[in-house]
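User: Show me an example of a complex going from sequences to structure tokens.

Assistant: Sure. Here are the input components:
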Amino acid sequence: MSTIVRLPNQQDATLPKRSYLNSEYGLKSWLLTGDHKRIAILYLISITFFFFLGGAFAGLIRLELLTPMPDLVASDTYNKLFTMHGIIMVFLFLVPSVPATIGNFVLPIMVGARDLAFPKVNLLSWYLYIVAGIFTVSALVLGGVDTGWTFTTPLSTHYLNTHVITAAMGVFIAGFSSIFTGLNFIVTTHRMRAPGMTWFRLPLFVWSHYAASLLMVLGTPVLAITLVLVALERAFGIGVFDPTKGGDPLLFQHLFWFYSHPAVYIMILPGMGVISEVISTFSRKRVFGYTAVAFSSVAIAVFGFFVWAHHMFIMGVSNYSALVFSLLTMLVAVPSAIKIFNWAATLYKGSITFETPMLYAFGFMGLFTIGGLTGVFLGSLGMDIHLTETYFIVAHFHFVMVGGMLMAYLAGVHFWWPKMTGRMYPESLSRLAAVTTFIGFILTFFPQFVLGYLGMPRRYHAYPPEFQVLNVLSTAGATVLGIGYLMPMIYMTWSLKYGAIAGSNPWQATGLEWQIQSPPPTENFKEIPVVDYEAYDYEWLANKTQHEVTTVG
Amino acid sequence: MSHPTLEDAHAEPHIVGPKTYGLILLALLCLTALTTGIAYINLGVFSPIVAIGIAVIKMTLVILFFMHVKYSSRLVMLTVAAGFFTFLVLITMTLSDYISRAWGLW
Amino acid sequence: MDSQTVAARHQDEIAHHEGEHPYYLRHHFETVEQQKEAVSFGMWLFLLTEIMFFGGLFMAYLLYRNWYYDAFVSASNTLGIGLGTTNTAVLIVSSFTMAMGVYCSEMRNRRGLMLSLAATILLGLVFLGIKTIEYHDKYTEHHIPGANFSIEDFVHPADKRDTALAPDMAQHAQIFFFLYFAMTGMHALHMVIGISILFGLLYQASKGAYTNGHTSIIDNFGLYWHFVDIVWIFLFPLLYLISRHPLH
């Protein structure tokens, strides 16, 4: 199988003498750093921890669902399991995954800056994330929360004795972590681009993160105030969401989903940015329709604010309102589809190779398409009446979030791993892990579409016996999936010591981050570059490499 | 660069002086007295409209002059507009649900 | 070129170089102007998050005012309009003094800046003081929602011109008061944070920190303070002026 990987001669290659990793030593130099690259590594470690914690809960859920009877855990405990799984995976993993790890690391370099606009705010973001994690783990240790990650009222405000306020505060704080990251990205993209780096020369990764950052800054505060209101309602029983006192529980849902729908775009847009970079690099071709992809990112962000009530179709919103939101939901699918078409067109007549990031990208394209299409099914009122609150929904969002976003995250981690660490991961093992993940994913979540269509409700741990076969398939898949996720943990860690030396541009990719050493020096650039070429300009890159070779001789 | 970007329209190095601030202060205080006084007059359905209208005028004065947006880059103006737009989306689209509930089923 | 000219040139170069790289220019920015604009833009984005944060409360207010208009009118009339108008004026003047502080910072007027900041602090404290009096009044009148609440004033109003409410509508007055305390309380929290920062700024200003060309911090704090003022500009008519008695 052909490959585009070009590594330096391993006999005499070494890591650069001075990089961001060894510029300073000691715990304090990491915990008090302003360097966006170090903060990205801090995030990488913490996010991985929470991913496996959330994954453990998923494992327990699937274990319970092996049998139709509620025999593994009590009902309340099962509620706590899926709640913690949701809260951790959404707020402590998916939302910060690509932006805080990969975005923090490469975005400043991609625009040609020495750091993000506000390094101290960046560090604060990470500390807020850690505090949020502590609150969430506290809620877990103190006995758990069982409201579902959606904190729906009046269940969360009146009918439960669990640690809702602790968990809500954890999410509140995580929200501010997200806001500050987004704020940093927006200011950096607007104000710190290198000379010649116009908006339309930026890598599409930056456009995606810019769009996601808009959502973070504008949407997350509404979640914050909503959680404050839930906490006040629980603590003082005021009645803002209590029907017996004249309040409206649906007000909570309006405010909650006003954020939580844009939140799903906060989660997926950075992943789409990764896919743009990976598909371009591994088909040696500029992304087809750059402008369309760039604007579709912003369009997703803007339209994403107009569709939230499609989570509330059966909750009591007016029919006219439901109609309008259903129509708008159809519209929001269009920019996402534009991206898929453009990536497919990028592949067409490209020089495709199948390194691991590309395998994950292919997985993304297929699985996200399925997930997205099922989202359109759910957006139509008539279908949603029957499919909502069933496993169809569960399958839909796991296809887009796990089959889509998580695959994109893994693609990104593998793609930029050489840049971040200076070392290559073992390619054959990683390909095996990618394929394992793909197979495990389909086995886990495709049966859930069928289950949902047949009527199995979500968030139930007992089900009619005729659904057992599909559930067993799903749990078997989950086991395979778990193995597929554990493998990168192991071989990535291995590669830190024993991986091949990567050199500055093992993928022969365009983009400013590949023009500097791996790992980069703390200040990123000796001199701020002046950019006079377009994004994904492979001819420029070929010229430059040729020129370098001839001058060395 | 082929065409001016948002960032090109940098803030004019314009220092707003005490006289302008004083005038705006006077205007704001007068508008405050006005809004309090008007509350005693029965304007029916227009009462809240007038009250919000006066508040919007006061807010505009504070934003343009105290917060210097009149002399700021286009980017800042766009940012303020984006904030209002998102706020209005929250209010109007949520209210559209509540208002149309009273219209009954189809 | 004689030595004097060379020396003068050299001094110019040093002054120019220091002018280009003052102590407050961070290493990741190329110029002072870039830093200034970036920090200002960052503050504006933060204010956007504040708009959306308060937005949720305004949404709740709009809904329940629509549903329980009579209870909102009666409840709003129990708020002291004199104190409310005074507080509005106090906050507007404090916005003026803050703007003057920005002017003094730009004009490198240390004493002026200190006076402006001190005046802003004072006015802010007056505002909070009046708010405390108002909250205390609500407590003594049994208008705090929850166990303490009494519907007496609404079912049997003391003033004959007030409309009496039915008991269940009178209960909904609690929602008004909850929103009153939540919105003014959130606003007051922002004031407390602002005043605390102002003390810090006053101290730094006394040491000459913001009158040496580094006006960013005062500028951007001013933006925050004006935003808090704007929130009150809307809270005042929405909470205090729903429908006062006609004058005849």
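The lines above are the inputs; the final block is the predicted structure for all three components together. Residues 73-106 of chain B form one domain.
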